[in-house]
Amino acid sequence: MAPIPEPFKWDESFAVFYQQIDDEHKGLFDGIFAVHASPGDAAVLDSLKGKVVAHFTYEEGQYEKVADHDVAGHKAKHAEFLKAAGGINTPVSTDQVIFMKQWLVDHITNTDFTYKGKL
How many CA atoms lie within 13 A of 96 on its CB side? Predict the structure, then answer.
């Protein structure tokens, strides 16, 4: 497992070097941080969930263009997260926030990095 940065903020160590994807990743970091700061705010949680869906949709459209990318495996990881995170409601527990933080840093560094330099 990758270390969770504190404070929980995107930095260059998470860069995939595709501007839109990096910007969306920044938004996911910010969204999880906002949920952590306001665990009882349903609008903040809904905003994060919307960012996640939009990001997965865009990213999947991009890596489908990469000949040797494990598209099915990558999509399955997204689907697993959506299933797990989709059931999260307010108030969001500390364990749920940690789950989202850990999943994001692990997913970027272990899965998204496999398309670096290939899009």
Answer: 18
Q: How many Cα neighbours within 13 Å face the side chain of 97? A: 20
CA–CA gap between residue 118 and residue 24 (Å, rounded): 18
pLDDT tens digits along 59-87? 999 999 998 999 999 999 999 999 999 99
Confidence (pTM) = 0.96
- What is the chain's percent helix, strand, coil content, to nearest 5? 70, 0, 30
Produce one character per residue of 61-90: b if its CB has 16 or more CB atoms within 10 Å, e if not.
Answer: ebbeeeeebeeeebeebbeebeeebeebee
